[in-house]
Structures are given as structure tokens and as C-alpha cells.
Amino acid sequence: MSVPVRVRFAPSPTGYPHLGNIRTALFNWLFARHNNGVFILRIEDTDVARKVEGATEIIMESLQWLGLDWDEGPVFQSDRLDLYKMYARELVKEGRAYYCFCSPERLEVMRKEQMMRKQPPGYDRHCRDLTEQQVDSLMTEGKVPVVRFKSPLKGQTVVTDLIRGEVVFENSTLDDFVLLKSDGYPTYHLANIVDDHYMNISHVLRAEEWLSSTPRHVLLYSALGWQPPQFAHLPMILGPDKSKLSKRHSATAINEYQNQGYLPEAMVNFLTLLGWSLDDKTEIMSREEIIKNFSIERVSRTAAVFNVAKLEWMNGMYIRALNVEDFAKRSLPFVEQGLPPGIKRPVDTDYLRLIAPLVQERARTLAEVPQLVDFFFVNELQYDSEMLMGKLDKGQAVSILSQTIDTLKKLDAWETESMEEAVRPLVAESGLKAGPFFGVIRVAVTGRTASPPLFQTMEVLGRERSMQRLGAALSRFIS
Fold first, then answer.
1. Is residue 51 annotated as part of the catalytic site, yes or no?
2. Is residue 76 within a helix (H) or strand (E), and if so which, with residue range?
3. How far apart, in Å, are the Cα atoms of 450 and each of 385, 392, 460?
4. How far apart are CA 439 and CA 418, in angstroms?
5. Which residue in 112, 154, 181, 247 is the catalytic one?
6. pLDDT tens digit string along 27-39?
7. What's 171's DSSP letter?
8. What is the CATH classification number for the domain harbouring 444?
């Protein structure tokens, strides 16, 4: 890059960050890291009425969870109100903006009339040509104005977008948008322009929905005599039904995915592929590989489709790639929270490390781990006799349990290989297939028809607990 890359992520704390927000943050972060640039966090907290308590903290925690470290910030726009007011007044003084005294009631009537006439809603420029004397008189009456930008009435504004090329807007379609509200707070249009200029932002990577606002920003840059940054508007994220992504498609707040046990490295990989690709086949990529190859040229113009099934698959791949120690460590908070109330806390971490390799292959998210391991911790299993017998009759089940208990009692070493070598010959002697035979033992020991490898599970459970469970199963039939 001929110009040092400086980009920003500028969320508004009016809600918790969703997938689209974080995808924008990620693309800015990747662009900065690829170009040895600077990634700035700016909190655009000027919409006081819609501010959500705790949203700023969630935004920062979400970035930290994903490893999107910022080089500067956080900068809060609420600390810079005098700066925005100064430039709003300067634009009025130079005739590029004007004071508007229209009441909310008048604006509402105007919009309703426009809708009745099937006209596009927009300010009718009622105050655009007020004289200085009229402005002074209204202010003397105590009326507090907003400041509106004086958009050109004719001609075109061309937006050069790094993804979409040149996009032409007719100036006649642009309204005289508000720069400064009556409460003294700037709108997004003014504040983000001033901040981007003062922060020397070189590139603005943001959601496609902001493309329609960009001609206003280009005009505002020109009015202030400033050089605009380069713009790149990222493709929308759609649900599988090709409608705008919403809660009905899946969780949309990024912290919900964290709570559901998705790994941050899997989320980074998955979100990167929502609008960017290395080629038509590569899906699993390390953070380092993504940074090395990331460029705006590979960002798609077309909308990306969110697929939760693909996210689960990818997360499962990342879980299986963890070493056992790391998997157990990451699973621990979910196990602590997800196990039944009666189980002793804190969970024995050494015991969990023994269990971890038995369930790691089956987990798609860390939140699934408690359900995969709970039978290792409970004192009594919940199952009925029909489940225990499977397709066998009572006599067959009793025989299997009796012979297995007698055989295992004789073992000196409670190890996987020893147990399997001792019990497997019983299958041939019984004349049954291995599936139904071991199914009885599996339900007796785990309370489930599907579980991790049976004898490895019994080794981890230990001799005492395994034998107690086999005995309890047999007692169902002979008590």
C-alpha cells in the first residue's frame, strides 16, 4: 500500500454485536494485519436514546474472545462533542449547511402526506432558505434547531468502491440530512466523517447497507475540503432461505455463539468465508493463513449465505484438532455449568482429562460436552428394563450380565485390553451377535445405547463404579 493502512471498527452500543457487525470488524482487522496497518476501535455512542447498558463491554469482550486486538482505542464519540459542533457551525457559516427549526410534529405530518402521495419520504427543505434575520428571530424565541447539510439539487455524485467499482447517485434523490441534532449530539453522517479525518483512516470497510449513505459522505468530505478514504462495502449476510439474516435463522449475537460452545478460531474461519474466499475449495484455514492471503480483491460482490450446519461441522473439525489437554480445559466451564445440580463441584479436572479423549470425536460444540459426559459423574443411571434388554429377552439379558460380572471379578488389572480379552469370548459362547450382547453391558454401565468405546469407558469409570452399575442392572431382573 502506498498509503499507510489505518482502518476502524466503529460499532454503536445500541445492541449486542451480531454476526454482521463482527464480520465487519474481522475484515477490517484482517486487512490491517495483512498490510501491517493499524486497527482502531471507536465506539459511536452518540445515539443516547437507544444506548443499551452493557453493550460496549460486550462489544469489547466479543472482539477479545475472537482475538481481534485493537491498536488504538477505544475512542468514544461522546468525548468529542465540541469537535462535531465546531464543524457543524463552520458548514453553516460557509453556506454548506443550515439551521432547521421544523418540529417533530410538522415532520411527521409531512411524511404522512408524502406517503399518501406515494412519494419517497424526505425533508422538504422548508428551512433551507431562511434569512439570517429569520434564524436570529427563531432562536430568540427559544427554538432549538438541528443543522442540516445543504445537498446539491442537480448533478451526480460518484462513489468509487473497491468491491463494486463506480456507483453513480443522482443528487436529486439525496435529502438534506441532519448533521447535528437539537440535543447537541451529531448524527452518524457528521461524526464518522470528522473522526475518520482526524484518525487518518485510509480505508472504510463497512456493510453494504451503508452504500446508499456514501454519496452524502462524499459530498460532506468535499464541503469540508478533506480527502475521503477509500470505500469498500461488504456483501450482506443472508439466511439459508436467502432472506436477511435474523434470529429465526439462528442466534445472531456473537456472544450467543460463545455461550453455545463454539471455538473462536472456528468462528474466525467461518466468518471469513462469509464474503471472502481463497479459492473454490479451501475451507479450513488457520488465522495465519487467512492473514497472509487476505485482500479486498477476493471479497465477493454477492451476498453470503449463513449456514449453521456448516458452522457446526467446522467447529467440530476444530474441536477434534485440539490436543486433549486443551479440549478438557476449554470444556471445563461448560461441564461445570451443564452437569446436573447434584454433582459435586468443582469438577475433578484430572478425572475430566481422562474422560476428554473418549468424547472429543463426538462433540460439535463445547456446550454438548456435559451431555456427553454426565454419566461419568452421576451416582444413579436413569433407564428402563426395555432399553437395557434391547431386542433380547429377559433371560438373555440376565445371562449376559451374570457372565460379564463373574468374568470381570476375576481380572487382576482393570484395563481396556484386559477387559475386552476376557469378555469378548462370551459373545461367541452366547450365540448372539456382538451388537446386542455389548448393548446390554453398555446400557448397564452408561445408561445409554450409544456411548464412547465401552471398555475404555469402563476403565475410566473404574472397577468399583462399573461393577456396581452392572450389579444394579442385574438386580432389576432377579430382585
1. no
2. strand 72-76
3. 16, 17, 17
4. 19
5. 247
6. 999 999 999 999 9
7. G
8. 1.10.10.350
